[in-house]
Amino acid sequence: MSKGVLLVNLGSPDSTDPNDVKKYLDEFLMDERVIDVPFWARSLIVRGIILNTRPKKSAEAYEKIWWEEGSPLIVLSERLQEKVNELTSVPVALAMRYGKPSIKSGLQELHDQGVDEVLLFPLYPQFAMATTETIVVLAEELRKKDFPNMEFTTVPAFYNHPDYIRVLANSISEKLKGVDYEHILFSYHGVPKRHIRKSDITKSHCKIDGSCCQTPSPAHQFCYRHQCYETTRLVAEYLELKKETYTVTFQSRLGFDPWLQPPTDRTIERMGINGTKNLAVVTPAFVSDCLETLEEIAMEGKEIFHEVGGKDFTVVPCLNDREDWVKVLARWVDEWAFSEPVKA
Ligand SMILES: C=CC1=C(C)c2cc3[nH]c(cc4nc(cc5[nH]c(cc1n2)c(C)c5CCC(=O)O)C(CCC(=O)O)=C4C)c(C)c3C=C
Ligand SMILES: [Fe+2]
Ligand SMILES: [Fe+2]
């Protein structure tokens, strides 16, 4: 058998044209693991409401962060793929869950190189049904339909892997070296609370606002909230941060459902009002900088902070294609590629 890797990130629109943004949002938000209501209700919410106004607003936001080469998320993912590919001895392809390059084209690319054993690598440190799970489900559907001779191994959420924690911690300490910050926000992409309950394999553990995420449980293997708190705890431990100097928040809320709390924007505002002058923000749910980090945090978040009297607002870049991260990914790939199958 011949091995290869498919790195998978979220994806972006083809351009900042509102029609392209609409097409992308339609594919994204019509995913039953993103807006997880029955098809008729999802169509009503997405096609009847959201897609009437959001594409124009989102297109304006994309316009502010778009690069000459394209969407930052795609460009940064491509750079990562190229660098990992250079360091490993098996082919590494790239795909996006929504938009281009599709998962189907990524699998085809590997298939054309003779690969029949694929390491499926969702580029999300913390598990969520709207990210990791939807990638795995779609890839499996494609495998059954179009690539029946392929075998998949999926990289699980790596939220607590010592290599990831070390690289993330180093990225933070490098950016904050010499910065006189008073507080660090660990801002994760939010999800509806319902998603957490749905992913609870024990069906009874996740109470969400109680202490469930700190109480050991098999549910944590798929609990996004637990994994966000764990990533934060481990980075804080690594950097020897004092408890009162950091806070976990959740950003990018959409719709009227209850989402994970507390929200990043309100927290930034409250901290500024309460007298914090120097704030740092890190966004560990994103491995590549994207709309949610470059616009929502680095532009909108900064503006909110300044409006209420805040002064220095430092945003730690995502891991992107930094050398230590590339080396870690290449090592994980090689460890998988050269591991012997366990004999019965
Ligand atoms: C119900 C809606 C959404 C859920 C649930 C959700 C979860 C989720 N998303 C990411 C990562 C990214 N999301 C990005 C953009 C984005 N997310 C949503 C909605 C939900 N996300 C929307 C509508 C958009 C599009 C932009 C907008 O209109 O605001 C991005 C950036 C993409 C880019 O092109 O740069 C990322 C990355 C995670 C990790 C996550 C759950 C944990
Ligand atoms: Fe999102
Ligand atoms: Fe929990």
From TrEMBL:
Q: What is its main location?
A: cytoplasm
Q: Which Pfam families match?
A: Ferrochelatase
Q: Where in the cell is it found?
A: Cytoplasm
Write the Enzyme Commission number(s) for this entry: 4.98.1.1
Q: Which domain of life is it from?
A: Bacteria
| Pathway per the UniProt entry | Porphyrin-containing compound metabolism; protoheme biosynthesis; protoheme from protoporphyrin-IX: step 1/1
Where is Fe(2+) annotated to bind? H189, E292
The chemistry this enzyme catalyses reads: Fe-coproporphyrin III + 2 H(+) = coproporphyrin III + Fe(2+); heme b + 2 H(+) = protoporphyrin IX + Fe(2+)
Name the keywords, alphabetized. Cytoplasm, Heme biosynthesis, Iron, Lyase, Metal-binding, Porphyrin biosynthesis
Top EC class per UniProt?
Answer: lyase
GO molecular function terms attached to this record: ferrochelatase activity; metal ion binding
The entry's cellular-component GO terms read: cytoplasm
Q: Name one GO biological process term.
A: heme biosynthetic process
Q: Which family does it belong to?
A: Belongs to the ferrochelatase family.
Role = Catalyzes the ferrous insertion into protoporphyrin IX.
Name of protein: Ferrochelatase
State the organism of origin. Answer: Salinimicrobium marinum
